C-alpha cells in the first residue's frame, strides 16, 4: 500500500514539475535594460534595400524601433506585423522604424514574404531573412517562434517571446500595449 501511495505522489510531483516548466516564460534575445552592441546584415526582402544584405540597426540609428525575429509567417504574426507597420507609419515624425527578420532557410520564403507584404499593404516595416540560428550576439532562443524587441537609443525597453502557437490575440494585445514605452520621449538629463 505504501508503494502505491509513494508512486502516486511521485507521479503528482512529476506532473507539477512538467506543468510549471511548460508555463515558464520564454527568454529570447536581449532583455529590458540591455544595450544592442552588435549589428548584422540580413537580406532585405522589402524596403529601400530589397534584394541585398543591409544593416537595419544601422539604418534606424538611435530612433525608436520595433525589431522582430520570427521562424515562419503565420496569420497571428501577420496581424502583429500589420499593427507594427501602422504604428511605424503613424509615428514617422518620431522616425520610428520597424523590421522583421525571418530566421529560416526555407525555399521560396522571399517570394512568400514579398507576396504577404503586398497583400497586407505594408508601407514602412521591412521584412528580411537571416540564418536560422539568428544573428550573433542577439541570443534568439532556439524554441522561440516569435521574439519582439522594442528599443530606443539601442536600449531594450520591452521584450516579448513566444513559442510556436503562443502568439494569439491576447498576447498580441500585450505587445501592442508596450508601444507607448517605445514612443515615449526619453527625459533629458542635465
Give the gist of this structure:
The chain is an alpha/beta fold. It is 36% helix and 18% strand. Strands 1-4-3-2-5-6 form a six-stranded mixed beta sheet.
Write the layout of secondary structure elements.
Elements: H1 2-23, E1 43-44, H2 56-60, E2 65-70, H3 75-90, E3 97-103, H4 109-119, E4 126-130, E5 146-152, E6 155-162, H5 169-177, H6 179-183
Question: Reading side by side through the largest sheet, how are the strands ordered?
Answer: 1-4-3-2-5-6
> Rg, please?
19 Å
How does the major sheet shape up? 6 strands, mixed
Briefly note the structural class of the backbone: alpha/beta
Supply the number of helical segments.
Answer: 6
Rough outline: globular
Instruction: Give unreliable regions as ranges.
Output: 8-21
Q: How big a fraction of the residues is strand? A: 15-25%
Order of helices and strands: HEHEHEHEEEHH
Percent helix range = 25-40%
**How many extended strands?**
6
Distance between the termini: 73 Å
Mean of pLDDT: 89
Amino acid at each position: 500500500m505504501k508503494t502505491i501511495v509513494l508512486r502516486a505522489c511521485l507521479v503528482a510531483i512529476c506532473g507539477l514539475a512538467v506543468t510549471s516548466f511548460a508555463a515558464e516564460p520564454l527568454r529570447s534575445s536581449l532583455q529590458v535594460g540591455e544595450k544592442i552592441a552588435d549589428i548584422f546584415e540580413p537580406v532585405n526582402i522589402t524596403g529601400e534595400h530589397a534584394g541585398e544584405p543591409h544593416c537595419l540597426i544601422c539604418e534606424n540609428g538611435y530612433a525608436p524601433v520595433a525589431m522582430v525575429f520570427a521562424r515562419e509567417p503565420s496569420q497571428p504574426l501577420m496581424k502583429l506585423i500589420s499593427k507594427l507597420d501602422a504604428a511605424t507609419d503613424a509615428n514617422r515624425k518620431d522616425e520610428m522604424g520597424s523590421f522583421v527578420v525571418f530566421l529560416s532557410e526555407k525555399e521560396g520564403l522571399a517570394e512568400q514574404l514579398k507576396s504577404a507584404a503586398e497583400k497586407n499593404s505594408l508601407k514602412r516595416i521591412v521584412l528580411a531573412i537571416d540564418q536560422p540560428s539568428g544573428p550573433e550576439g542577439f541570443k534568439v532562443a532556439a524554441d522561440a517562434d516569435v521574439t519582439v524587441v522594442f528599443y530606443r537609443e539601442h536600449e531594450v525597453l520591452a521584450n516579448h517571446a513566444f513559442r510556436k502557437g503562443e502568439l494569439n490575440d491576447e498576447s498580441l494585445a500585450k505587445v501592442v500595449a508596450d508601444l507607448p514605452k517605445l514612443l515615449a520621449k526619453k527625459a533629458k538629463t542635465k
